């Protein structure tokens, strides 16, 4: 419905600024379908084929979505620059009130969706992407309405110039989002607060743990892979050591942001870190 309102507003008014908001709105249904399909793919996992899960497909889908939005923005920049260079308008463009009302309705609806997704943005990675989309749409639709009215009331060049500025803004916002998603896909380290939480849980897990040697956590898509090295009594039985390590692994994997946890048991801390820098990174 929002895409239909934006489409009507752009065609009826002929405003390049509203065409920019319309292009952004038309991709929303397509991108939402893509996000839904990727979310369902994550929930249908064959453990024999994907032993580590398919959570990273969410991040890959988010990156594709970002680049689709950037591609549309670059196309609109070219079209607006061509019309601006032609300078075919000598007067202001006609003002079309129903188009402005249609985009204003879309703006109000996006504001409601923005507030709803804001409450869930830290719980689901895809909801965060939608929240960012609504945030960008509020800025884009608001500026699009202003530049469209300015092209009708003040000067003709305000409309194509506004379309270029809005398209550049859209491209910048989504390229920045794509960069952050790439970081998650590559395997950037978890933030300091999360590392501190993992360390605290490991230290207080059992009185049999003498020390914590190493704590690492890195992203594998939206969730984390955790690696912890605990120091146990060398004279402790294998059964006790195994039970402590396994219980700690289960506890760490129960955290909402952790995909998988690996616990390594050792008896001293004077050695070099295990399983690190084994290969040239």
TrEMBL record:
<keyword id="KW-0813">Transport</keyword>
<dbReference type="InterPro" id="IPR002524">
    <property type="entry name" value="Cation_efflux"/>
</dbReference>
<dbReference type="Pfam" id="PF01545">
    <property type="entry name" value="Cation_efflux"/>
</dbReference>
<dbReference type="InterPro" id="IPR058533">
    <property type="entry name" value="Cation_efflux_TM"/>
</dbReference>
<dbReference type="InterPro" id="IPR036837">
    <property type="entry name" value="Cation_efflux_CTD_sf"/>
</dbReference>
<dbReference type="Pfam" id="PF16916">
    <property type="entry name" value="ZT_dimer"/>
</dbReference>
<keyword id="KW-1133">Transmembrane helix</keyword>
<keyword id="KW-0812">Transmembrane</keyword>
<protein>
    <recommendedName>
        <fullName>Cation efflux protein cytoplasmic domain-containing protein</fullName>
    </recommendedName>
</protein>
<feature type="domain" description="Cation efflux protein transmembrane">
    <location>
        <begin position="2"/>
        <end position="186"/>
    </location>
</feature>
<dbReference type="InterPro" id="IPR050291">
    <property type="entry name" value="CDF_Transporter"/>
</dbReference>
<feature type="transmembrane region" description="Helical">
    <location>
        <begin position="99"/>
        <end position="119"/>
    </location>
</feature>
<feature type="domain" description="Cation efflux protein cytoplasmic">
    <location>
        <begin position="207"/>
        <end position="266"/>
    </location>
</feature>
<feature type="transmembrane region" description="Helical">
    <location>
        <begin position="59"/>
        <end position="79"/>
    </location>
</feature>
<feature type="transmembrane region" description="Helical">
    <location>
        <begin position="154"/>
        <end position="175"/>
    </location>
</feature>
<dbReference type="InterPro" id="IPR027470">
    <property type="entry name" value="Cation_efflux_CTD"/>
</dbReference>
<dbReference type="InterPro" id="IPR027469">
    <property type="entry name" value="Cation_efflux_TMD_sf"/>
</dbReference>
<keyword id="KW-0472">Membrane</keyword>
């Amino acid at each position: 419905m929002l895409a239909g309102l934006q489409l009507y507003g752009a065609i009826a008014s002929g405003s390049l600024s509203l065409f920019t908001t319309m292009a952004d709105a038309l991709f929303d249904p397509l991108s939402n379908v893509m996000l839904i399909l990727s979310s369902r793919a994550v929930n249908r996992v064959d453990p024999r084929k994907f032993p580590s899960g398919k959570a990273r497909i969410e991040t890959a889908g988010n990156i594709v979505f970002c680049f689709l939005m950037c591609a549309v923005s670059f196309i609109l920049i070219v079209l607006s620059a061509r019309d601006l260079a032609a300078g075919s308008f000598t007067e202001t463009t006609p003002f079309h009130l129903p188009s402005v009302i249609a985009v204003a309705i879309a703006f109000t609806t996006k504001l409601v969706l923005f507030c709803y997704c804001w409450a869930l943005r830290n719980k689901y990675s895809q909801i965060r992407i939608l929240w960012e989309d609504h945030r960008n749409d509020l800025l884009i639709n608001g500026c699009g309405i202003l530049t469209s009215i300015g092209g009708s009331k003040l000067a003709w060049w305000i409309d194509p110039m506004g379309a270029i500025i809005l398209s550049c803004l859209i491209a910048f916002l989504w390229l920045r989002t794509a960069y952050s998603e790439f970081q998650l896909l590559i395997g950037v380290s978890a933030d300091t607060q999360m590392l501190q939480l993992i360390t605290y849980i490991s230290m207080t897990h059992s009185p049999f743990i003498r020390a914590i040697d190493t704590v690492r956590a890195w992203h594998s898509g939206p969730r984390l892979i955790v690696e912890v090295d605990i120091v146990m009594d060398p004279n402790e039985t294998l059964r006790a050591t195994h039970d402590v390590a396994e219980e700690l692994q289960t506890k760490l994997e129960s955290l909402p942001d952790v995909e998988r946890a690996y616990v390594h048991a050792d008896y001293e801390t004077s050695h070099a870190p295990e399983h690190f820098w084994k290969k040239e990174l």
